[in-house]
Amino acid sequence: MLALLQRVAQARVDVDGQTVGAIGAGLLVFVCAEPADTEAQALRLVDKLLKLRVFSDDAGKMNRSVVDVGGGLLIVSQFTLAADASSGNRPSFTGAAPAEQGRRLYEAVLAEARKRHTPAGQVQAGVFGADMQVSLVNAGPVTIPLRIA
């Protein structure tokens, strides 16, 4: 699975002019399934998201996780993470999983994150397959690409 996470001061996702997910400080995570991905990789992705130390401690070192700081997670599906623009000027998205597999794995990530990251409401989401407008204030900035094999 592919993911791109951004440490944010705040973030939200709007669909058709309505906010469908919003967090304060935490992680905005864009997620893309690839054809060979499984639910085990979705679970490992959540484990990585919850443990990755990208928030500053008292000494200013990135040494705290989203769990440690009580931050939110805003998880958004984004098949374009699998884009291949190596030839020509139009990216190919054949590296992304088919829509139904992508939906299933995205929902697995959401379910596991909601189960493990409490209290309720700490995990927000976009709408799979929707035309979304994502707004964020990147804190740092900190942006980290992840590939979970």
Morphology: globular
The CATH architecture classification is: 3-Layer(bba) Sandwich
Global mean pLDDT? 96
Determine the CATH topology.
D-tyrosyl-trna(Tyr) Deacylase, Chain: A
What's the helix-strand series?
EEEHEEHEHEE
Report, as a whole number of angstroms, the end-to-end distance: 7 Å
CATH superfamily: D-tyrosyl-tRNA(Tyr) deacylase
**Beta strand count:** 8
How many distinct helices?
Answer: 3
Number of domains: 1
- Please report the first level of CATH classification, the CATH class: Alpha Beta
| Poorly predicted tracts of residues | none
The largest sheet is: 6 strands, mixed
Name some characteristics of this structure.
single chain; D-tyrosyl-trna(Tyr) Deacylase, Chain: A; 38% strand; alpha/beta; 149 residues
Question: Secondary-structure map with pairings?
Answer:
Blueprint: E1 2-15, E2 18-23, E3 26-32, H1 39-51, E4 55-56, E5 62-64, H2 66-69, E6 72-77, H3 99-116, E7 123-125, E8 133-147
Parallel strand pairs: 3-6, 6-7
Antiparallel strand pairs: 1-2, 1-3, 1-8, 4-5
Helix pairs in contact: 1-3
Overview of the molecule:
It is built from three helices and eight strands. Helices cover 23% and strands 38% of the residues. Strands 1, 2, 3, 6, 7 and 8 form a six-stranded mixed sheet that branches. Strands 4-5 form a two-stranded antiparallel ribbon. With 149 residues, the chain is of the alpha/beta class. The protein has a single domain (2-147), classed as D-tyrosyl-trna(Tyr) Deacylase, Chain: A.
